[in-house]
């Protein structure tokens, strides 16, 4: 199944992994937020903007043939919180959790599970910061790609990211604290690439693919500032792992 989450907090499950969740029909005023691929026998986990994680059985989610149902009907998030991302997989699988203040860590799915409708706090979110959609980690030799709001890209080994059960994590991208606090500069997107994978950079309707050779220009260590993307590609909406 592919679990699809909308910006308004509606959820649905589509059969198979071939679906492009961005092309589904959404209610007026609603839009695509995040999607994750797994199996109907696995629990689906959701992260909200307050840093809480929630668990629902994937097989219990409504079909993607309709608009789905609001998660707020089955879960009790804090007032004002919105759902930021969805995760699904085996309990031992690692995912990267991060906020746009530039901090993050990896976590095993088992650590996020909760039977409580109110979920459990897993990410410490600094004042004003937003939780980014979580990203699966394909292996210990994977690379993290992070982009900031100024169009700078940093690529570094996922091995440099701490594995935690909960917390704030470590600085992934070198955003000065005052700029993060004032939201003058943010880490706008993260992706995790298997060795040999390319990186797709999305800006509006346009897409640019950076090959593994191209990515060497942006390689560095965790918490550095990376390098500036080419002119015309400095307003990045999202990044994703591509084919080699």
Quick one: how many beta strands? 19
Overall body shape: globular
Question: Biggest sheet, in brief?
Answer: 4 strands, antiparallel
Mean pLDDT: 96
| Continuous helix count | 3
Radius of gyration: 17 Å
Along the chain, the helix and strand elements come as EEEEEEEEEHEEEEEHEEEHEE
Helix- and strand-based class? mainly beta
Provide the β-strand percentage band.
35-45%
Tell me the helix content: under 10%
Q: Low-confidence parts, pLDDT < 50 over ≥5 residues?
A: none
Strands of the biggest beta sheet: in what spatial order?
3-1-2-6
First-last Cα distance: 24 Å
Question: Could you describe the 3D structure shown?
Answer:
This protein is mainly beta and 244 residues long. The protein is 6% helix and 36% strand. It has a four-stranded antiparallel beta sheet with strand order 3-1-2-6, with no helix packed on it. It has a four-stranded antiparallel beta sheet with strand order 7-4-5-10, with no helix packed on it. Strands 11-8-9-14 form a four-stranded antiparallel beta sheet. It starts with a strand and ends with a strand.
């Amino acid at each position: 199944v592919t679990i699809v989450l909308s910006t308004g907090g509606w959820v649905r499950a589509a059969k198979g992994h071939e679906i492009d969740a961005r092309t589904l029909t959404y209610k007026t005023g609603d839009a695509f937020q995040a999607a994750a691929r797994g199996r109907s026998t696995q629990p689906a986990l959701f992260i909200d903007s307050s840093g809480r994680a929630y668990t629902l059985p994937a097989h219990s989610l409504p079909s993607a043939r309709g608009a789905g149902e609001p998660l707020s009907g089955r879960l009790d998030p804090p007032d004002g919180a919105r759902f930021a991302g969805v995760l699904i997989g085996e309990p031992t699988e690692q995912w990267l959790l991060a906020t746009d203040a530039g901090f993050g860590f990896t976590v095993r799915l088992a650590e996020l599970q909760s039977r409580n409708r109110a979920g459990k706090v897993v990410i410490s979110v600094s004042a004003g910061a937003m939780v980014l959609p979580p990203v699966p980690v394909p292996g210990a030799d994977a690379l993290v790609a992070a982009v900031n709001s100024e169009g700078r890209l940093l690529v570094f080994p996922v091995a440099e990211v701490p594995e935690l059960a909960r917390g704030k994590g470590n600085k992934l991208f070198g955003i000065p604290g005052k700029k993060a606090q004032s939201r003058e500069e943010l880490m706008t997107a993260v992706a995790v690439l298997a060795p040999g994978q390319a990186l797709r950079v999305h800006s509006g309707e346009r897409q640019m693919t950076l090959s593994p050779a191209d990515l060497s220009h942006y390689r560095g260590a965790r918490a550095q500032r990376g390098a500036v993307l080419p002119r015309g590609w400095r307003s990045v909406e999202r990044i994703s792992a591509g084919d080699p």
